[in-house]
Amino acid sequence: MEWIKKMLEGDKRACAKLITAAENNPEKAEKIIREIHTHTGHAHIVGITGPPGAGKSTLTDKVVKSLVDEGKRVGIIAVDPTSPYSGGSILGDRIRMQDLALNPNVFIRSMGTRGYLGGLSKYTKNALKILDAAGYDYIIIETVGVGQSEVDIVKIADTILMVMVPGLGDDIQSIKAGIMEIGDIFVINKSDLFGADRTATEVNMMLDLTMDMKRRPPVVKVVAVKNEGIDNLIKEIKSHIEYLEESGQLEKRRKNNMKLEVVELIETELRKIVISHTDKENKLDGRVAEVYNKEKNIYEVRDEFLRAIKN
Amino acid sequence: MSKIIRVLVAKPGLDGHDRGAKVIARALRDAGMEVIYTGLRQTPEQIVAAAIQEDVDVVGMSLLSGAHNYLFPRVVELLKEQGADDILVIGGGVIPDDDIPNLKEAGIAEIFTPGTTTSEMIEFIKNNIKDN
Q1: What is the pLDDT of residues B98-109, one digit of tens each?
Q2: Chain B residues whose C-beta sits inside 8 Å of any chain A C-beta
Q3: Is the ipTM above a cut-off of 0.95?
Q4: Which of A74, A278, B56, B59 has a C-alpha 20 to 30 A away from that of B6?
Q5: What are the start and end residues of each CATH 3.40.50.300 domain in chain A?
Q6: Which residues of A147-169 are buried (b: 16+ CB within 10 A; e: fewer)?
């Protein structure tokens, strides 16, 4: 593909076109990923997650500015929710990144979740690989505003920043399972507001409860709009990268994610086979009727279909 | 799967009246499009950079400051320079009727003035974007 060659040479329009293709068409996505695979794996992937309005976009803006000042090239993927009713969306993360729009070393792409529930879009991974192949040193992925369990970012990011703000709940929130377990660095944004110290203390206490931690995530207080604490945050990001490399965790984490990805791909194909079998002559409806009439149970029906597929 | 239409809604120039742009963004969202909203006070360069990176099908600009005769054509010109003149460019706001022919001549596909319904605009976009 002509666009791939141009993208590898650093052409932004080619990069954008490829992301669109990979977002809209699974066959094209496969073709692109097959071709660029050997060019990927160089970028460091930073995930930024946290509740709506926590300041993820503003923080992204400041972190990226700081990295660009060091001479790095940075790609940004910003995900916002898609309407379950119309399929449309308002992607507004760019509003907080005005100054970056014209920087030649920055590429910003907004994505809608398009019905995907893990805090990302199903195609974020593809976009990520394209930006990686395009030679960006860092790729920042900003998730949708998340609640408690949208943790898919762990499947693609090397370093996860969990952005929190004061005033969203007491210490019980911080010991709950889910999102609070995935942060590599906890960022308390808007820490000029009342209650910031308390939030930081609660997170610290939660972190101290974990016994078998190889590395204790730091808690960093920032005020993103005022660019306060960003230097410190960048230092912590780099220290995490160093830790990942020295401990072998980077390779382990990435291999683990690749494993998940391959299994997912196989599942998708298997699902097609299952659907094609069960759909034949409305076979499934007939079996369901038998289940309904208590002639068969769900496991008997499962085994019947599995036998048919295996033959 | 059909392609989802992506639209950049931008406010070029210096006026801060974004109510209209937000109404438009919302209407396009409800019509099933992905709307990238850039926020206020954008330069033509910023708009074009965003349009290219976001690979949009449409750039819609809302302007109420009176500077449309410069800013709208400038965006078309910059898109052309980048080889992205397949992107549909439309504009809206308080634009005098007398200015409209020149703007269309300069490559703005349509100008929507007060009183246009959002469904007219949505139809126009659906009928005029380029397939690629």
Answers
A1: 999 999 999 999
A2: 1, 3-4, 6, 25-26, 28-39, 42, 45-46, 49-50, 52-55, 82-84
A3: no
A4: A74
A5: 2-247
A6: eeebbbbbbbbbbbbbbbbbeee
